[in-house]
Amino acid sequence: MTNSQIICxxxxxxxxxxxxxxxxxxxxxxxxSCQNSEEFCAELEQQIPALVLLDIWLPGTDGMAILSxxxxxxxxxxxxxxxxxxxxxxxxxxxxxxAVDFMEKPLRLEILLDKIAVVLSNKPPExxxxxxxxxxxxVAKIINPIIPSGALKLEDSNRPQRTxxxxxxxxxxxxxxxxNTGVILSPLEANSGIVxxxxxxxxxxxxxxxxxxxxxxxxxxxxxxxSTVLARESRRVRTVEHLMASLHMAGITNVxxxxxxxxxxxxGSANDFSKLINDAGILDQDVAAKDAVVLEPIQVGRKKLDxxxxxxxxxxxxxxxxxxxxxxxxxxxxxxxNAEKDSFDVDIAPARxxxxxxxxxxxxxxxxxxxxxxxxxxxMHDGKVINTDxxxxxxxxxxxxxxxxxxxxxxxxxxxxxxxANMTSHGYNQALVQxxxxxxxT
Length: 442
Hints:
Layout: E1 7-10, H1 14-26, E2 31-34, H2 37-46, E3 51-55, H3 63-73, E4 79-83, H4 88-96, E5 101-104, H5 109-121, E6 138-141, E7 152-164, E8 168-173, E9 180-187, E10 194-197, E11 203-205, H6 214-220, E12 222-225, E13 230-232, E14 235-237, H7 241-250, E15 255-259, H8 271-280, E16 282-294, E17 298-301, E18 309-313, E19 318-326, E20 331-338, H9 344-347, E21 354-356, H10 357-366, H11 372-375, E22 378-381, E23 384-385, H12 395-408, E24 415-422, H13 426-441
């Protein structure tokens, strides 16, 4: 039978066992301890504890193997894994195998006691706020599809069109496939635009009308996206947003990007793409660029603080104002990026993608993403970042700005205006760009 409060400590270090026995005993918990898997299995035959504190590194059968066995034999038994030598991969694997949490040694006993209290209280998990996530399919409904007449027009820019001075190559792992991939950037003549090309020479212009399932999205007046994917003639180019953001902010209007289905994701930021462009060098061309100038507001969603929405409004220059509000460790974050006053390469490009461990795990199990997520995301679990140090205290809102800048360039022209966004992700970004496209063509 199960003892409703007994805690079983499985660790080969006598000092750890003795400390936990004393501390847990002082808190009123009955404790049994085992120094290896054999003793633990024998204990399970006598009684099933309410909770197991399980060390990863054990003589003989290690803790990960024990955890895997417990998921088969005792699937409801909660396990907190412990280790003084394991890294993020071990923590992620432990949670994927069903551990309720992971503690690094030396143990912070006050934190451990809090975790034990939550597990043994049998509290239902708190409802998690929606996290705009590129592992989930999100529908961005276009509310009020009517676009004001003359809301957007093309004007000659005071900048020339630009391309690269030379060819450059970047290799890395694909975010969604998890496979090794690469991209080659090459110069193009004026008025060519940003063009992706697959290995079989299928050309896919970087334009909103070439996003995957565009016709269906327009027909339903809604956009679903787990990243920005371009498609043409049954060929796809996936996760283009970070490269597009770097091209956008470098003023590159003409470039060929040859790729095998997916742009390498590297660390989940745009850092490497911006460096790649700088390595290639930028060539001004003898033709004026054009800007899409906002004359009247254009909006997607309702302007409510608790709802996702974004809109453009007249502004002399290019500016993005973004707000997010998610569960810990993010909270409410706000940031304004002005392309003339701020540095994209310093302030925005290094900001990385982020997601919860649970969302990534669910997406991997469903086959919608590959192993590339584990190395290229800020991963959050139990209200904290578990795999990295943040590059900025507000890195999350900065990355949302990065994604938006990349998606906006699917209009085919730089935008002259201010974009105000609340809690948005790729589906909403694309829905706005589709409305901007319609405004330019009607």
